[in-house]
Amino acid sequence: QMQLVESGGGLVQAGGSLRLSCAASGRTFSSYNMGWFRQAPGKEREFVAAIRWNGRNTYYVDSVKGRFTISRDNAKNTVNLQMNSLKPEDTAVYYCGASLSWFVVQPNEYNSWGQGTQVTVSS
User: d(Cα 44, Cα 38) in Å, to the nearest integer?
Assistant: First the structure.
């Protein structure tokens, strides 16, 4: 099972930007589709974005389309989430996950998780 470590979170004002990174250990990273999820206090973990193992396909939850961009570098075993035009409702702990399934948005379809990175957007 891959080990995933997220980084890049922080405190930012509304309208600002952050870039999250997820570093994966292991030689099988390029075989996995990768996703970003987020979990706000008192809420369930929700899907944000995903990218296919080869980087050629992506999809996003409607609330972040046009603001967030997911990318990956298989040579560096990393997946990134560029977040622009941040809103207070984007505040959450952000997690990356790995899945062998494509076009899935349920957390239980992902079998590896990092520890999360906190993103706080002030109004």
Answer: 8
DSSP string covering the chain, please?
Answer: ---EEEE--EEEETT--EEEEEEE-STTGGGSEEEEEEE-TTS--EEEEEE-TTSS-EEE-GGGTTTEEEEEETTTTEEEEEE-S--GGG-EEEEEEEESSSS---GGG--EE---EEEEEE-
pLDDT tens digit sequence for 37-91: 999 999 999 999 999 999 999 999 999 999 999 999 999 999 999 999 999 999 9
The phi and psi torsions of 63 (rounded to 5 degrees) equal: -70, -15
Half-sphere exposure of 55 (CA within 13 A, CB side): 12
Q: In one letter, which amino acid is 106? A: Q
